[in-house]
What does this fold into?
Amino acid sequence: MGFFNEFNRDDLLAYTDEGPLYFSDVLLTSPQKDSIECIHYAKNKSSLLAIYSALYYSKSFFVIDASWSRSFTNSYLELIKHNTINESIFFIPTSGSTGQPKLVCHLVTSLFKSSQRSLHHHLLSSNSFSILSLSPSTMGGLLTITKALLSRSTLVVSSSHWSSQLQNYSNLNLSIVPQQLSKILSFPSVNPDIFQFILVGGDRVSDDVKKKASHLPIVYSYGSTESCGQVIATKLGESIDDYYCLNDVNIRFDHNELLLKTPTLAYGFLTLNGFHSLPLSDSFYLTNDIVTQLPKFNVIGRKDFQFQSGSKLISPEFIEQEFKRFGFNNSMIVIPKKHDVYGFVPVMFLKSLENVAQLHVFSQQH
It folds into this structure.
């Protein structure tokens, strides 16, 4: 419960479409003991309250959204029941839009440590507003909630698009991905003075977008679900090309692969094949990201075949494998193609015109 001791019953935590959410609402909840709280986030007051309640009671929890099927959910919940970790933990999905779905397992204390680490470098004021622009089923969204709690800023949650709230508040904080930054830049006129700062992460930002966004108070950052959020960032008001490590973060490079060491590293991850430890080398997490070294930090590739599209990890081998199940055999290959908005998009090359006709039939049947 820790920092919750500083709250009063009538303290405002968030604005939602269904009305304000106060600390007294959290006190009225009573989650079951010795159980994993499965939270289906749906942009409403009740699902947000479930997250606050899990944090307040130091419950172990599992956050998913509508993209997860019921069969996957039930399978993972069955596996989670058999965890042997004695501390409160939370599970959060990763691996993006393709690949075997997996849940990264973190200690709940790591969520608070990561939030405090970020706030140490990018402080939120208590009279500011944080718009929840990312789903809490992502690390960025969950950290937005936790940082708002720790800083006593007010969270803003709406079922309408997050961007519709920009003109309703001032002293705003945003945590967004590059595609959302492009969305802001597409608006006819956004007053940069409404923002305290904008944290951008989750994918590489093109130099062109950075140039167009130079009038906005932006912090560019790097982190992952496995590191429990940002670990490397730029400084507000300084060069957007100079990055530094946040507190308690150590890095090193192995043939330009980034290796991370921090107290907030994940405990491991869960797939339908069971629990797995993080890939480590001397306690450093092997990210598989090929980067340019500090201070001119940039992710320039991967050691594996994964790539990012719209801040989602794409596994081309998985896509190819799924199509082979439907009779395409070795007649196709999936590769990344550069895209102005999404960074990269998956493109399929087919071996012959016969395969094109086969794909046309397949698309009509599925």
Observations:
- The longest strand covers residues 284-292.
- The first helix runs from residue 23 to 27.
